[in-house]
Structure formats: structure tokens, C-alpha cells
Amino acid sequence: MKPMRKKLHIFLSLLGGWMLVLLSIGTAHAQLEPFKVSGKLCIPDQECLADSTVFTDTLATSTAWSWDFGDGSGIITSTKNSIKHLFQTPGMKLITLTRTVAGVPETVTRTVNVGVPPPAFPNWRRDTMICKEDLGKLVLNPYPSNAPNGAKYMWFPKGDTTQTLRVDSSGCYSVEVTSESGCTYEDKITVKVCLEQSNQEGAKWYFGNNAGLDFSGGSPQPLTDGQIKTPEGTSSISNSKGQLLFYTDGVKIFDKNGVVMPSKDTAALAGSPNSTQSALIVPKPTCRGCEYLYYVFTTSEINGQKKFSYSLVDMRRNGGKGEVVETNNLLNDNTTERIASVRNDRDSTYWIVSHDYDSNVFRVYHATKAGLEGPFQYALGAVQDTVSKGEGYMKFSPADSTGMRRLAVVVPGPPRNLVEIYNFSDSSGRLSGPQTIDLGPAPPKAYGVEFSPDGTKMYVSLQKGDAPGDTTLSRLWQYDISLGDSARIADSKILIDSSATQVYGALQVGSDGRIYLAIKDSQYLGVINEPDEDSQDEVRFVKDGIFLGGSTSQLGLPNFVQNFTNESSGPGFTYSDTCSNQATNFQASPLCDPIKDSYTWNFGDGSAPVTGQNQQVQHTYKMPGTYTVSLRLVNRCKDTTITQRITIIATPDPINLRSPIDTCTNRLVLDAGVQAEEYLWLRNGVPLARTKTITLQPNGGSGRYQVYAANGIEAQCFSQGATQITLRRPPAYSLGPDTSLCVGGGNVVLNAKPTPTNWNKFQWSTGETTQLITVTQPGTYSVQVTINTGTPQACVNEDTIQVRALPKARIAAVLTPPTGCTTTDGQIVIGNISPPSGSYTFEWFGPNNTMLSATGNTLPNVGEGTYRVMLRGNPAVCATDSSFGLRAVRTLRLQPTIVNARCTLPSSGAINLNTLAGTPQTYVWTNAMGAGLGTNAALLANLLPGTYNVKVTDAGGCDTTLRDITVGITPDKFLSLGPDRKKCIGDTALLIPSLPLIPGNQYRWSTGETTDRISVTRGGTYTLTVTNTVTGCTDNDDFTYSLAPRPTYDLTKEVPLCDLDDGAMATLAVRGGASNLSYFWFHSEERTSRVMVSLVGNYRVRISNPEGCELFDTARVVVRCEPRIYIPDVFTPNGDGNNDVLNVFGDHLTDFELKIFNRWGEVIFYTNDINQKWDGSYRGSVYPPMSYPYVVSFKSKFFPDRPRENQRGAVLLVR
PKD domain location, by residue (predicted)? Predict the structure, then answer.
């Protein structure tokens, strides 16, 4: 045996145990291994062929390699120092490596033992859905029988090591079974609880200065237990139920309890607090296991080492709280601060993208069940060769229907800010593009980027400059990336918000569909509530959108795998095709697939409910409108009803166009004939018009016509019709020249059949069907005429004629009024007639429309009144009928002087008429009702408020009337409630106003009462408003009723006094009152708070305070004596008649008992009658002289509630 092996054998013999064997071998050969072997030395699981062994040459100077794995697979050459290999058979294998060192081949060997993994789990289920009530009933067992010998078990999620596991909650459960050879087999089962929310890996956010948000309940709530304090990037991960697993700032990893996660390596993670996307947590896919391994990717600060690394967390360890099992595996040592990831939902693998520094190279890694594959490199876009260019965010968009996504990369300036938008396939990992969007000059500096949930909008945040004198603003922009080319996207920019004082940071979409904006040092995050919308108002951005519970945001927000923040959906239903009289399709989503549901649909239109197990149903609504549709979903776990309001759009009525149409006309009107919101006409397939009707003419009018009548925003509900039209030109037709008539008696005959065509059918616009019609009104008249030409269809033509109104003659008149109101010396002369030619005649009519004798252009000798003249005779104009009024000149001019009435004296108004011109003779005064007031004078006095009229006549009979002379009311104070007063609490005050007793007063107290007086007991301010319905006067006054407190005190109502005691006195005292109270005892007129009395009886006292409030009370003195008892110390029962018995004397007591004892404690005398005496004997025996103890007990007569009182003593018997 070689020395090394001998020492090892002795060492093993001493220590024993296979675990120590492995540890010792590793120690002994650490420096002797010719190459490194990692991974599992096991024949492959056929489903997980990628579970291979990795062989790595440890000699750094090697330049070429060839491998022989000793299993008949041949010699394999490689240009790398590392190679993977799958062994297909178990057993010992001699591995031979031939490597070239300095041009010289060198061969090294190593023997490995390839083991066999444990058998697959029989009857194992991968997924199950259970009811909540079933939790605790399901037991998982990978080997119900024939478990392999020596197998070890490791369960996820809590690291249990038993063979069986009872399921106590929903989630993924996996078990890894390790055989004695160290090979493993693993499988999982996903247990879902009906209607329990899932897909919430992005529910918990930790960021900034101890800030956090919890989205697991739908609407985010602040978290205040975070341990992170970092200016920029973070990442966190939850399980599918939204329960926190761990989070990181790229330097430390904190478990769900906020405790730094234990690690096999003491080194900190390679991230940086000042790295934009310092960390990103990505699950490591397993072949059949749950996601219990997590990559933690980190980027260091671009001003520092520029490293891109990953660590690995195993959540099965540390009691399910996780342990870091690998630390800082370097992927790239020249990277920017960007990391982004997305899950391929087709195979549950993950893509991770980073970007090199000083290069335009993207590195795409693929996290599969075989491990981390790649990188696949793509040289695209601009070179990121400055610190600033390497600091912006990188984000994936949601996938479209083909699985394509956008990848946005913020490239900050200077000189200009850019966003590069790439296309990414989540099935192949291929990256292409970019489109470059110019955001404008820097500063401000572009930083964050995020996509709207529907993938059509991109939001970018920019940070205001911080240099001295920089006046740039922080900004939040929206871009419409659905527009296609870069220029149109750049032009779609909408400013959502800006700030001169705050610094805007990262953007991150939440699982609630909103986008959140980090604002440095703010206790709030900004919120874009409707990010799919496309205007500043509609996106509803709120800068103080959500409170962080007192913690503060910095620049960063958590970095997630893009899919982890998608909105989750629950049971419900969708619908399509919402047109009346057409089938509307409904699609239900199951409650908890695959548990079978029963669906009951109620369509809200009065039709019978439909029940069945089909998820798809159809229903036809007869009428448009809004309906409430309910869907009841029932299975063995749940019974849930979901409602939605749907709007059914009216389908236009069927269009019935006559077809074919062969007609001979100059104008053919086609009418869709139905009501709709939109119309579309096509001729021979070419759009023609969007109106309900169209007018066709013979030139080009023939052809095939189609019409669509549609309702709805997208014109989705429509009817259609079609016709074939042949349109021929008819013979010419004309109604002749326009004509005229006189309105008001004139007429004209219109003839519809001018020569030479023999039209034989007529349709006038008036409705008449004759050849001739008579019209009496001016206007436009049309006629449609028809003639049978022998063609298949009669010819139709039409024409219009304008009938105009002839003008009237224009005249001017010179009016001479009469000199007085009763004289007849007035005159009217007509002149300046236009047109002047022609022979005119004049007819005159008087004020009563009676014809006058005058026939010329002059009407003489007339008085006041209205006169009419009729002018005829010129055929070019119509008769003129004009009226003229003659009125004598009035010389009276009057001006009223008004004195308004006063509220305190309503009949104090007056009107005095002042004559400015003329000489008044009579006055007739009336009130507003027209009643005469009997005063024929210029002064009208003693008036109430109101309106008055006066008619004044002068000597010439002319009168002047002044109407609606208003006498107003002058407000003055007429109401008083008197001065404020104080009352004692409990007193009643009667409030009586002081005011004139005028009819029509109405009262309104602030208490709501409407009487002329009120009684009040509560303190406060009371307001009275008095309105007089006759005068319109209103006044109000306030009265404050202050309540003074009554005295507070304490008086013993019953005081004991023993009247048998000489000089006994009882004290009556008022206690507990203020020091300023006054007292008066009525029995003695004493004025103190305390008095002494010697007699039983009632004693009355008055207690008053400085406010004058007083109370009366009575104290009663009653007989109350203490019990009294006396037993002599000695008695002499010697028969001499003096003191021969023991007398007990007592008063004011009851329940008396006396016991006398001998010296042995025996009762020798007992009585409960105080009058019974002891004669010194017991049962006929005379007791000797000596001292005898006694016990006397009793109760108080006046204080019966007291306990029994006992007294002890001794009496000396002397003979």
C-alpha cells in the first residue's frame, strides 16, 4: 500500500463513517486532481438528458484538449477547457485527457464511478386542483411501496426530509430522492386551491429607504418592514400566491423575515447600490422539480468593476427560508448596469439579457433545466462607450399574439437622450432591430422606461439637471409605439408631467395594470392609472399616487422578470357580437379548472336562464339596450355569481331596394330606407357616398349599387341591400319663365303641359295631380311629369318655377295733428309715391274703419285718431294699404316726489305731483287694483307701500297718465328682544318681542317656532325674524340667554343622634361646594355651612352662589344610639338580699346571648334574655367563689346591618 493510501486507511479506520470518507478523500486529493469533475456522475434521466457531467481542465497553460470518457463513445476533441458528457451506462469509467501544453501533448487520467438514479415515482400526479376544505387530507408519497434502500428525501418548499408529506397549503411541492450512489430523481406536483389567486411572483416590492408595496390583495398597500436602504436597483421574488420569498439590493439578500440570508460564502454579492439595475431574481428551471433554485443576477456600478455575475439561492434550505449556495459566478467583466428578463411561457424557460460596456453587443442567456446556456451575442445599435450611456434602464414589453416582444434600452446623453427599441422572440431568444427614438438633448437625463400593459405605449422618465444654473425639468413622456416607424413614434410624444424640484426615477408596471414612478426622497410614488390611454387627461397620472407609509422612495424600483407583473385574471366571462337580432357569443372562464363547473346564464332580457356545462353559449337579443348578464358558476368547491352590464347595439332594419330599376329620368333618388348611424353606398364596388340618400343622373348613373347601414362605434351592426340600375335620359321639359302675384288676394295659374311633348301624368309639389293649378302664395313650385314613350319604363322629367310677390307702392305722408285733443283741424297729405307713373286712386277710412268722403291725396279737417288709405291703379305694383295716427301735442309734464313709508308707521307714505309744464285741471288717483282713492289734488298722503296711478287732465281736454308710481318702505329698527340675560340652569325664560302691533306680522324663531313668544330653558343665542306681509318689512334681533350653574354640594340627608345622652349634639354640614357659596339655615337663621343641633327632626337649608342661583335641601336628624351593655365585676349570692344575682344591664341592642364558663371551659350558664339572672349555681349545685369568664354577644338595634358584636370578660363570685 502506498504511504498516502495507508495513512488514509488508518485515518478512516479511526474515524469511520462514509461521510468522513468523502471529506477525507476530497482533502487528500485536492491538489492531485488532473481535471475537475462537476455535476452528477449518473446515467441520465431520459426526460432530463441535459443533466450531464462537466469536465474542466484545471491547468491554465493548456491550449488544446481531447477526451476519452472510457464508455466507448470515442475520442472527442475540444477547443475549450471544459466539456459536458452524458454517460449511458453505470460503473467505473477511466477518463483520459490529452492536453497540449507549450506544444507538447500531455496525458492525465482519472477514474470515476457512474451511478444509477432512483426509480421514477409510480402513480405520481403532476397537478391537482382541490377545494380549500381538502387541505390537510392530501398526503404525498413518492414510493407508496418498494422504496429504494438507503434513499434520502429533500422536499420543497420547507426542506422536509421525510418520505411522505402532508399538504397543508396550495403551491408547488417537489421531492428530490437521492440514492446511496448520490444520484437523484426528482418530480413535483402543483396543488392549487379553488379560486385562490396565483401568478403573483411580482406581488411584493422592496426599494428605496425601507419602502415597500404589497400587491397581493389587488390594490397595493404600503410595506414598512423592508430592510433595504439603497438609491437605485433592487429585486424581489414571491411565490405564486404572492407570499414573499426574499429580496435583494444586489449586495445583501434578505429572507422573508428581513434577516440576511445565510450563505456558504461570506462575500457580499457583486452588485452595487449605485447600479441602475443592480439585481434581478430569476427562477432556475428544473426538469421536474419546483422552482426552488433562484439565480440572483447582479451588475456592479459602471464607475467601478463593470461585472455581471450571478449567485444561486436554494429555498429548500434553512427551514424554507433559503440559503445562498453559490456566490458571484462571473459572467462578464465589462458590462453596463442593465439586466432584463422574460419567461417563455411555452416551455417555462427564462431569457436574461445584458449589454456590454464600450461595445454594442447584447448578451442573451437562456436559463433552462440544463442550467444557464449562452451567451448568444448580438451586435446591434449604438456603442455604449460612456458612463452616462451605460446607466439607463432596459425593459421588455408584453408579448403580442406571435410571441414577439419589444426590448427598450434607454441610452442617456449627453449629447442627446435616446431609446432603442428592439424586437425579441421569446421562443428563440433572437434579438433584432433597432428603432431609435430621439428624446431630445441632455440634460434632462433619460433614466426609466416601461411599457403599457397592452404594449402600445412606452413611457420614459427624465431626471432634471443638477449642475449650477441648470433650469431643466424632470419629465414623464408617453410615446405611441404602435405607429411603426421611428419618426412617427417620436412625433407622438405627449408630456404627462414635469417638475422643477423633484427628481424622477424608475418606472415599473404593477400587477394591477398601473405604472408606478419613483420620485427621489418622496413619501409617495407617482401613479399612471390608465397607461393604455393616449392623452394626458385620460392616463390619469397622480404625482402623489400612493403613500409609502412614511418610508421614502429613491431612484430605483424592483426589477422583475417581465411576466411576473402581468395582471392576473379570475373567473368571469367575455362576450362578442353585440348586435340585436343576431347571436351574441358568451365565453365563460372556469372557476378552478379542471374541476367541472355547472354554468347558469341569465341574459337579463326576461328570457329563461340557460344551464349546462358548456363554456360557450349564444343568445339573441331582440331589442337594443343595456342588459345585466349574470353567470352562476357552481362546482364541488364554490358557488359564485358574476355579473356584467353589456350594451346591445341596434341592427338596422333590412334594406329593401327595388331591383332591377330601369327608368327614364333626369334624377333618381335612392334611399336606404332605414335609420342608422352610418351609411355607405358603392357603385360597381367603388365607394360613392356616406349619406342615407343619393341622387343619380343619367350620365354614368347606371350600374350595380350596394348600400350598408350600420350602427356602433366600429359600425359592427349593419344591414345591406343592392340593386341593378339602368338610367336613361328623358325628353326635355320646362314649366316656362318665372312669374309673379300680389299677396293677399292675387293668384296665378300654372300649366304643366307646354308643347310639343304630350305629357300625360302630373305630380305637383302641392300634391295636386291636374295639368293646371292656381296658386295664391309666392314660392317655388315643382311638378313631375310622365309620358309613356313605348320603352319598358315611362319617361319622367321635372321642373320648378318661381312665383314671386309683386311689391307695393311706396308712399310718404305729411301729418298735421289737431291743435287740441277735442278739435278737428288736423290733416293728412300723401306724396312721393313710388313708382310715380300710373293713375292712382285713393280710398280713406276713419278711426272706426268707416269710409270717408275724401278721394284725393289729402284728408282734411280730422281730429285725433287712426286713419287708413288704400292706394290702387298701377299694374306694376300691388295695392298699398297704409295707416296713420294723429295725436294732439300734450303740454302737460309732471314729476312725482315720493315719500316712502316707514316700517314703524306703514301708512306714512306720500306722493306729490310737481308740474313742470302745462296747467293741470283735474287729478284722478287709483291704486294698483284700479280702485279710485277720491283725491283730486296733486298731493296724495297717508299711503301704504304699493303702486299708484294718476290721470291728470288740462283745460284743453288732454290728459297725461303716470302709472306705477311706487311708494316703497324705508327699513327702520322696529323689533327688540331686550338686553341679554342670565338664568339659572333649570329655569324657564319667556321671550316676548317688543314691536308695533301691525297686522300681517309673521314670526320665525331660530328654534323653528312661529309664535309671537316662546319659552326657553336652554342657554344660547336665540334669533327672531319678523316679516310683515303687508308692508314687506323685515327685522331681526338676537337674545342671548346665559345659563348660570346651580350650586353643587353634598349634604348628609340623615344624621344620627342619641337623645338619651345628656348634651348630645348632631352636626349638619354642607360639604363639597365652592368656597363662594352662601348658606341659610331656616331653623336658626345661621349662615354657615355647618350647624349643631340637639333635637331630632328636619332641618332646611338654602344654598346659593354669586350668580344668584340657589337650591333648597333638608337634612333629617334621627334617633340612632350605639348599643350599650354593662356586666358587674362581682356579685355575692349569699342570700343577704344584696347583690345576690348577676344583673346584666343593656340598651339599644337585640339578639342578646350570655355564656358563662367554668375553669374547664364548660358553659355553666346560658341565656338569651337580658332580664334572666345568674344566681351562681349550675344544675342545682352551688359554685364556689372564684372568677368566672363569660362571653356576651348582641347586635345593634339602630344599626342592624352591622355584624354581631362579642365582648369577653370575667365576673368574681364571692360568698
Answer: 61-98, 581-655
